[in-house]
Amino acid sequence: EVKLVESGGGLVQPGGSLRLSCAASGFTFSRYEMNWARQAPGKGLEWVSYISSSGSRIYYADSVKGRFTISRDDAKNSLYLQMNSLRVEDTAIYYCARDADSPSGFDYWGQGTLVTVSS
Amino acid sequence: QSVLTQPPSVSAAPGQKVSISCSGGSSNIGKNYVSWYQQQLPGTAPKLLIYDNNKRPSGIPDRFSGSKSGTSATLGITGLQTGDEADFYCATWDSSLSVVLFGGGTKLTVL
Prior knowledge:
The structure holds two protein chains of two kinds. Chain A is mainly beta.
């Protein structure tokens, strides 16, 4: 069974940092491209970042570029999102999502972890 | 405001059918595959309904269908059930921006 479990969320002050983790199981993690997406309270889904299976290709939404860093550790079957210079508008539930083995689609999602940026 | 435009809400009676549109541009829908997601409650994990414009993952009933024409895509749902009430999102890659785009979401109400 494919499972994605996020952790690392919490309350942080504006300008602070957090590191989110996503533990993957039930599939060969190293073969898959991975993503982070988020959903602010009362808002729609927003894609945040993508990393290829090799880690050589990485993309970010403009809203987080230069502040967030995506990475992966295939030995630990884990995906990470380092979030620096956090802003109030980064408050959201953060999901990790696996790229489907096809041109499009995120076929598995974690349950999400809540990040709250507030003073 | 999202680059991909969806109607904020649609509604229909049980047993009826509904279509949800997703309008984009030449660098996103016009050039790339579209996927659709169902989110039963905000804050819960979305579920993939349609990928590669019109393919259904295993376990998704054939009441759900997807199509694409030019720079627009459509999700169709037939035989509506009260359990179908949810928020629906389209998504695609934008080749010019090198980002994944989500539509703003459409809330389905089954009256």
